[in-house]
Design goal:
Number of domains: 1
CATH class: Mainly Alpha
Helix content: 55-70%
CATH topology: Arc Repressor Mutant, subunit A
Order of helices and strands: HEHHEEH
CATH architecture: Orthogonal Bundle
CATH superfamily: Winged helix-like DNA-binding domain superfamily/Winged helix DNA-binding domain
Number of helices: 4
Distance between the termini: 34 Å
Largest sheet: 3 strands, antiparallel
Structural class: alpha+beta
Radius of gyration: 17 Å
Strand content: 5-15%
Strand order of the largest sheet: 1-3-2
Mean pLDDT: 87
Shape: elongated
Length: 106
Amino acid sequence: MVDLSKNQQLIAELLVKRQRVHAYEIKKILAGVLGHGSVYQALSAMESKGAVTSEWELPGVGSEGGGPPRKYFTITTLGKDLLEISHARDRATARAERRQKRAHGQ
């Protein structure tokens, strides 16, 4: 089954909110939460799963203009679906843990 890791969930949530974000901006936004290499590994894995698509933008193109080429990422419908499945799984796990604690008198 295709699934999103916790790191991939964080990135997917960001992409749902921001729509189209370049990799370095994702790294800056999630600094302190995810390491530099973790962001790029997660994006690569997400792209392999079909959860995100990427597109290179050359300097002077688009609203930012100038600077080095940037790789922009956009979440796909599959990525949104995988994020929702991950959230549902996390909620179910939390409910099961609460029930287990109550059953053991904790």
